[in-house]
Amino acid sequence: MTIRPITLRCEYLTNPLGLDVLRPQLSWIPPFDQAAYQIIVTYTGQKIWDTGRMKSAESLQIEYAGPPLESRGRYDWKVRLWNSKGKASAWSAPAFWIMGIFTPGWHLFCAWDQPHTELDKTAWIGEPDGRLFSDKQSLPATYLRRVFQVKGTVKRATLYATALGVYEARLNGQRVGDQVLAPEWTDYRRRVQYQTYDVTALVRPGENVLGAILGAGWFAGRIGLSEGRFNYGHRLRFFARLYVETDAGKLEYFHTDGNWRVNSAGPIVGSDILDGEQYDARREFSGWDSPGFADAGWKPASIEWTPNFGPVVAQTNEPIRITQQLKPVAVTEPQPGVFIIDLGQNMVGWCRATFRDTQSGQTIKLRHAEVLNADGTIYFENMRTAAPIDMYICRGAVTETFEPHFTYHGFRYVEVTGAMQPPELVGCVFHSAAPEAGTFECSAPLLNKIMAAIQWTQRGNLHSTPTDCPQRDERLGWMGDIQVFSQTAIFNRDMAAFFRKFLQDVREAQTLDGRFPDFAPHVQGPENRFTANPGWADAGVIVPWRQWVNYADKSLLTQHYPAMQRWIDYVDTNNPDHIWRNFSKLAMGTYGDWLNSDTFSNVTGFPIGKGKCPKDVYATAFFAHSTDLLGKIARVLGKKSRYDQLARQIRAAFNREFVQPDGKIKDDTQAGYALALHFDLLPARLRPLAARHLVEAMKPFNGHLSTGIQSTVRAMLELTRWGHADIAYELINKTTLPSWGYMVEHGGTTVWERWDGYVEGRGFQNPGMNSFNHYAIGAVGEWMYRVIGGLNPDEAAPGWRHFVVRPIPGGGLTWAKVSYASVRGLIRSEWRIEGGVFTLEVTVPPNTTATIQLPDGNVPKRVKAGVHRLTYSMPSPSSTFQ
Ligand code: BGC
Asked: How many helices and strands, by DSSP H and E, does the chain display?
């Protein structure tokens, strides 16, 4: 076996096609402890950058420092390494990146300027105006086509495309790429992402047709919590440039301009992210995206040079893609002609359905729902005003297949009406395709189910932005949810590229006076409501910190630092005594420790008012935490800052104002203790006492948690840290309300928004807010990876350069197997208890070290790369007794 570096990535992506960073960052996974590296970059066969032998153990984000990169240039690169004894690896397999389209010294497509050079003649094209259609209805899709000629054989063809709206590009009858809902969601007023496609195989000599279907998407369709459509604009527009290089060495380009024809009377009569797609197959333009189609009846596209959006930038995160297809597990017919198809899993995406023996004009409806009513019909009320209904009007055939284009649904059940028989159908699962990173398995089936539900919930809520839920009329990048879930998200998937994109959304949604938003992108515009909420806005500091700890992403910190400063300065200025009590009027009343036990005391009989952490305690805890992190970030960046000192002052104020000499915290809530402990706010002496109070504070709740979304996982982690792992295990194993076990034992295949989303005997919670696919409570995944799996990153050696493996067995578990594909390689932690002997096997990837702590309480062991097996004989219950 040849020893060589693997997993070569550029800007966190494998062989990216269109980058617009001028100094891309390169990473790889070393096969041994690296002492030196050499990178060679070639361009058109010429070596343009050779680092020579660089003495460095760093394998992450080595910045390209060669000559300026060319627009659309393809750069091939390889790397080799040396160990400390001077032994070299083989060269890696070659990798590449391709630059996006730009003019050096200037940014990208300058289409918002009047065209002045030949290359700037790319226009935004579409139908004149979305206002031609009613605000009450979903917009029909616009079809666009252009014929072009190619002389000679095609050597390379690349399509750059984007839209104000969402689009699907077509070339000679084929779909281009596998992206769903491109160009995804950004604040289009600030930036519009473009996608790059290698279409070499689709372009041919002679006549070709480039086409696009354009839908409303986030740009002009409905978006959660905003009234009506057209949140960003009325004019749906497509924007593309196709480059074709032929054998003759000729480079030609075709772009969106006056040569396109358009038709909005096609089969997609309506499509909307929230409201489904309506498709009339009788209106199909057969062959419209291929040569030879008669488009005389189509209108010339309306063109626009300066639509006041953008700039256009390369997409930096993994696109939304179909990653799995689910087959139905059951079909029922609770009422005649109403078929309910069960996919066995609450999923997010859409259905591809094949109908048989149809009549022309026959209308088939697919309604998507997460759960069923007791009578077997679908429960649809929790969709609120969203109408996740796809409608297909048949052309009439032996079989016809329908798959939507510009919508998505959160569902497990599909209700089909209007068909003579249930269709053949698959559920196409799609989400931002952040690669899988973590696996978790243990001896308790209940816990495995909980983790599976957490992972599915994560997949259901990565749609360009980390959303709260995927089904009702909301689906916003709620900051508080991802703030608490971010470490779990990172354990499960490689979120590096996704978070970089999202954090740019966050920066763009920051107000002029420094308030971070409550969700990003901010639909209503940053200066509007929904900003500055404690625990929500703080995601603007906490998520970047996690990105640093897990991915050692320093450039992200550099980029984000001024925004974080402005946020902390804002809270500081408005709360001069360091107790965060002056909440922004635009914070919409502060959510606090959202969904704590007060919201379900009626079904549990829990004491009312006792679950709720006082808002000043809650908010000040976050203020202290974010400030503390900012102080650390400043140190990472080598900056002098006042934030360490400010954090000390906030901690002192917190203790003065809320903490009694015996460690009791104002109002004696579980949440108060969990947050104060987790954010290290208390003096060392009071911490064990506060942990005791946390345990005591569970008594009025029959030993259950009363915590809301922000303090639940923090309570679990702190119980464990302060010697009460047994209690944390009891909680994770519980199946009574409130518990994760209750959810999965009551049909939950994803995590519910509310502990009491459904209660036996009572039924569903208020449909006004009852999602069955919300990851916030699933943040306990972090506890499962850290405590059961034992995997803990070390913030002093970010990017898992050093990490701590400290599994804490409990809850009757006899084994656990956890793995994590870190940025530096695959880490495994597997343990089992057999015949009273605890055996732990840990895989430490090359170029990293680990500290392994057995649950025997002995001194931890520092180890290097390799597979390590450690055992110890557990004290038997009787010997403990003696
Ligand atoms: C969302 C939550 C979000 C919250 C703010 C809800 O409607 O679904 O997950 O964090 O609003 O309190």
From this structure: 16, 46
